[in-house]
Design brief:
The complex is a heterodimer.
Chain A (H helix, E strand, L loop, with lengths): L7 H40 L4 H15 L3 H16 L5 H27 L2 H9 L4 H31 L11 H12 L2 H35 L10 H4 L4
Chain B lengths: L18 E12 L2 E12 L3 E6 L5 H9 L6 E6 L2 E5 L2 E2 L3 H5 L2 E4 L11 H11 L5 H14 L15 H13 L5 E5 L7 H18 L2 E5 L3 H7 L2 E6 L2 E6 L1 H6 L4 H12 L1
Parallel strand pairs in B: 3-9, 3-10, 7-8, 8-9
Antiparallel strand pairs in B: 1-2, 1-4, 4-5, 5-6, 10-11
Helix pairs in contact in B: 3-4, 3-5, 4-5, 5-6
The chains are: A mainly alpha, B alpha/beta.
């Protein structure tokens, strides 16, 4: 095992750059999460539509983004789409579009699962009170589905937050890009990538704890018993493998 | 007493003028099995009709068709003098009929993420356009009518089965229906609680003139509070009679056997 002398001073010197990168990472994550949470609702509704063609289009969209690598999606939007359309999309916008499209697909499946878990009788009660389909969604289905799917939604958001590191490959100056640049300039890979990992962990871990809390609370509310911890099956929960 | 296979209103398509709800020649199949087989059915204002029959005989389907939760293959439905369903399909006046009909379900179907008040005021605010104050005042009155006024701020999940069912009745009353369809609303309740809930319906009929159509196995309620007892068999109305006729003077062997079996239960 090679001897390693740590130079954390290099990290301290580059700290303003790392912070600026973290700002970009958080911006991309925040915009992506907000947009996906909104856009996933119509996609989930379309996925359950009685109109076959609408259902198929929604399913096709979901499957394309679930079954291709995130990095390929990112490159396709940054490099291939301009070739196809002649319009150049800046790195930041490409990153937001790719991550949003990807997260929306997963989020839509989480929503759909939540929507379908709302008992049909509760929807019939809404129909009998003459609530429109939109009002049933807005007041009966979505609030219950969201509550039930909070752990899944938080898990998806953690995954997406970590995936933002991929945007460094299309020259977006996020945390990973800044860490990589500093590591290359100072030959201090261990310090910079450890620091980057620590920063990602410090943000994702509390959300992960929150996810576990909501899972326990949800199970207690449903059964009165604490959950038995089992590994979650990604295909059943909509969580990315 | 009418022991004909179906209750005869007038000729098909010409409902009785005094009827609040009139259904003619309703037909509905599930997977090739006839659940409603040419049913004629009417409800007068302020009348309590109790529908009895074996599981799968079509009684709940009749309620769901009148409520608009199921579409029949055939049949006309007239509500308050307006044809709302013709040849099985909804007419342009469907909403007129829907406004007169309320429904209460076996499993209460209160929305668990809302408290009692929010359950009650959502539809009046969104559909009738009532202000928050107007809707709340109406909710207080509706809850008082079912003896649940003190639970207005409770969460529906904190209530017992009987309390939830009474709140469900109050929620239906918020839209001021003229006929209340009740689908086995007491079958999940203990007998004393069921009696309380049925007592609420009897009082609503008495005080508000509400027409009630109730699918139930509660023969005690049927004999005391019902104006009519309707016995369903194989998707058809086999008996339509007063409680006294149905329970004490009926010669329909199937009804007799059914009543005896329920009494023994």
């Amino acid at each position: 095992m090679s001897e390693q002398d740590f130079d954390w001073g290099a990290v301290a010197n580059a700290w303003p750059h790392l912070l600026s990168g973290l700002g970009v990472t958080l911006q991309i994550a925040a915009i992506t999460i907000v947009l996906s949470m909104i856009l996933a609702v119509p996609v989930a509704v379309a996925r359950m539509s009685a109109i076959e063609i609408v259902r198929w289009v929604a399913q096709l969209y979901i499957e394309i983004f679930r079954c291709t690598p995130m990095l390929v999606q990112l490159f396709w939007i940054y490099y291939a789409l301009p070739a196809l359309t002649g319009i150049t999309i800046p790195g930041f916008a490409s990153a937001v579009i790719a991550l949003t499209a990807n997260l929306t697909a997963f989020m839509a499946e989480a929503y759909r699962s939540g929507f379908q878990a709302v008992p049909v009788e509760q929807i019939e009660a809404g129909k009998m009170l003459r609530l429109s389909r939109f009002q049933q969604l807005r007041h009966i289905i979505v609030p219950q589905a969201l509550r039930q799917q909070i752990p899944v939604i938080l898990s998806l958001n953690i995954s997406m937050f970590k995936d933002t590191a991929l945007v460094s490959t299309i020259a977006v100056h996020d945390l990973m890009f800044q860490a990589n640049t500093a590591a290359t300039e100072t030959y201090r890979s261990l310090e910079f990538f450890t620091t980057a990992a620590a920063v990602y962990f410090c943000i994702a871990f509390p959300v992960s704890l929150l996810t576990s809390y909501f899972e326990r609370r949800g199970q207690l509310a449903r059964t009165g018993r604490a959950p038995i911890i089992k590994p979650r099956k990604p295909e059943l929960t909509g969580v990315k493998p | 007493m009418n022991l004909a296979p179906n209750l005869g209103t007038a000729e098909p398509g010409t409902p009785a003028t005094t009827s609040l709800v009139s259904a003619v020649n309703l037909a509905k199949q599930f997977h090739g099995r006839k659940v409603l087989d040419g049913v004629d059915f009417d409800v007068a204002a302020g009348e309590v009709s109790v529908i009895i029959g074996k599981s799968g005989s079509g009684k709940s389907t009749l309620l769901r068709v009148i409520a608009g939760l199921e579409d029949p293959e055939e049949g006309d439905v007239t509500i308050d003098g307006v044809l709302v369903r013709s040849g099985g399909a909804r007419t342009a006046d469907w909403n007129h009929g829907a406004a007169k009909v309320g429904m209460v379900f076996q499993s209460y179907n209160l929305w668990p993420h809302m408290n009692v008040l929010d359950n009650l005021i959502l539809a009046p605010r969104k559909i009738l356009g009532l202000s928050a104050g107007e809707a709340e005042a109406r909710a207080e009155k509706a809850l008082a009518e079912v003896g649940m006024a003190e639970h207005i701020r409770s969460r529906s999940t904190q209530l017992s089965g009987g309390e939830r069912q009474r709140v469900a009745i109050a929620r239906a009353l918020m839209m001021r229906p003229q006929v209340l369809l009740c689908d086995e609303i007491t079958s999940a309740l203990d007998p004393p609680v069921a009696a309380e809930v049925l007592g609420v319906l009897a009082r609503l009929k008495q005080e508000e003139g509400l027409a009630v159509v109730l699918v139930t196995h509660d023969m005690a309620f049927a004999s005391k509070a019902a104006d009519r007892v309707i016995f369903f068999s194989n998707g058809r109305i086999a008996v339509d009679a007063t409680p006294d006729e149905a329970f004490h003077h009926c010669e329909n062997a199937e009804l007799k056997a059914f009543v005896d079996a329920v009494r023994i239960d």
